[in-house]
Amino acid sequence: MAITHHAADQEFTTTRDGFTAELAYARPEDGVIDFTHTFVDEGLRGQGVAEELARAGLDFARQEHLKVKTTCKFMAGFVKRHHADYADILA
Asked: For 48-87, what is each residue's pLDDT tens digit?
């Protein structure tokens, strides 16, 4: 599934079969990204779409050498479950 980064809108999005999903973020200070909100249309739920968005956002943070905060409950749970993979970029 193709995930698109819209830097101007501070979000990662994907669309499949007319349904959309997004991972929104903020840049509260230099060198920090805060994932603030995850939304997945009902038609895409249960298919791992949120996890794909999470990985795309976290990969972006790593590539850009950003420290990660997770205001979003889903993202907080995701990085907790995958702590070993992302501990080095957590704020």
From this structure: 999 999 999 999 999 999 999 999 999 999 999 999 999 9
What span, in angstroms and rounded, lies between the C-alpha atoms of 3 and 9? 14
Joined together, the tokens standing for residue 65 give 């050498």
Burial, 72: exposed, middle or buried (Cβ in 10 Å; 0-12, 13-18, 19+)?
buried
Distance CA 50, CA 29 (A): 25
Q: How many C-beta atoms lie closer than 10 Å to residue 24's C-beta?
A: 20
Q: Identify the CA nearest to 88 among candidates 71, 70, 55, 66.
A: 66
φ, ψ of residue 89 to 5 degrees: the values are: -110, 0
pTM above 0.85, yes or no: yes
C-alpha span between 21 and 30 (Å, rounded): 27
